[in-house]
Amino acid sequence: MIRNASESVIRLSGKNPHYFSYRGKELLLLTSAEHYGAVANSRFDYKQYLDALAAYGLNYTRIYPGVSIHKPGGQNRKNDTLGPGEYLITPWARSNTPGYAGGGNKFDLDKWDNDFFARLGDFLNYANEKDIIVEICFFNSIHKQSFEYCPLHRDANVQGVGCDSFMDYETLFNKQLVAVQLKYVEKVITETNKYNNVIYEFCDEPTIDGTKAKDAYPWLDALITHATAIEDKLPRKHLFAQQIMVGVDFSEDDRIAINVAQYTTSQARQVGGYTALQDFYHRTGKPIEMNETVSALSEPAYYERDVVAASRLESWEFMVGGGAGFNQLNACFTYLNPAGNHPDNHRILAGLRNLRNFIESMDYVKMTHDNNTIKELSVGGRISGMSEAGKQYAFYMHHCFTNYRRWHPTHYVPVEGEYNTVVSMEIKEGEYNLTFVNPADLAVISEQKIQSTGEEIKIQCPRYTLDIALKIIKV
Hints:
The protein is of the alpha/beta class. The protein is built from seven helices and 24 strands.
């Protein structure tokens, strides 16, 4: 049986295990979030940030609690929250010994930083007030250029705990390092057990920087085993999540309740969001999150053409396909601009609110990923959907190409045109109301009644320029 959370905590829905429930109702997780440093960067005003998400009805964010840290100004993000430099605050207190690469004193792994845990608790409390779920991700793959900024680099702490290579950081090779890592996981879980709005994720991208899957898998297994034992002794049980990667696959492990995917397509040993829906949705019977995309509104830009449209393409395709949670990385949120004030960002956040409203306009909890109803499109395009067969169907169609030339095949590039697509589908016998919706603003384009005999039917879409949504409800 899949390990579920306590009744009061965000947990798997009893009505449909592909979704969550919280506070007595089913829940979709949607956000466009800062780059995980909200707590670890002491200059970041997280209340302004959480207020901005809540203002658009967004209810999800993800944090790294002070261990996976980037080089300041790294990854083409000058004011990235995950590169705080001397303003880094971690679970470990600073020592009296200078020499931390980011500025200030080294860390003392024998002393916890009470200020950090007070800040973490305040963040979780405020998020809870705003009805926002927080996914705490313990580790991320250690990038070569950022390794020295990790508090568990041997030169970053006074104990000299660490390993020779960044590729060994997420393995069981260094017993002293592993002991500290397990103790850190235990401390964070113990300190945050009382919060109901928390999900624990173990490691983001564990093999993307060269660590071998055969070495990362037993390390992750040790983390999961330890976390399970710790929570079994505590009052509340929380959901555990782990990213699916080639060779590091916990998707059918009953201790892991949530399968995590990243980016739109599978690349760099990662399983993309829509690929995960196709391959893991029905096989594992678990919620699937797409909890990272390329970063919107960063300099230089990762997205091409219209960032707002690109955001819409990947979020609608995944969530209308039955996804449980979507998080777009958003570089607009910085310590200089914690509320993310920018015209394009307001449009992105409003677009995610539209997506939520579209899905919640149906009895979506009774729907599951649908890979069978659509038979053919008259023109090239991508289509995803979910259904409760014979009662309600939802589909989203868009036109794009995946760019293999720039930053890996990680995102969609919108292709606008004059589309008048015919969709061939097979739905159960009956009379249905068919509504065409413009995803950009939720405006109804047209409505009509259709009759199905149970055989394949062809539906003519009204003219559109990039994307269109279909809602089919039995009369």
